[in-house]
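note to self — DONT lose this again. spent like an hour looking for the file last time. sequence + predicted structure for the chain T wanted, 136 res
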Amino acid sequence: MSPRGTLFALALGALASLPGCALFRRPPSVLPAELEVTATAYNSLPDQTKANDPRLTASGVRLRPGIHALAVSDDLYDRGLRFGTRVWIAGIEGEWRVEDRMASRWRKRIDLYLGDDREAAERFGERRVRIRWQAP
């Protein structure tokens, strides 16, 4: 390393060690967050939505069986679970993405999309789960 590069590296290290320096820290908005919520499941069936097109989400994504999409309650949306946010659910395989919103009456709740399989959604039922998410 040249003397100039060494001097730059030393100066950068000194700056990073100062209290409150965020040079090498990620901003809080991109740090993973965790929360315990109530989880249910839904399907893209006409009787389970108010929309004219049961496969079209609030984010504009078109649902299809096999996609790992979920809807979130308004309070979770306000906490950073915005459209496109990646979500991991303890005990449930895969990475899920926030693509839809739930009715405003729900709090601390997610709704997993399970395609057209009504029986799978009924078997899933309602359960408490721990979620972790990363902002897009």
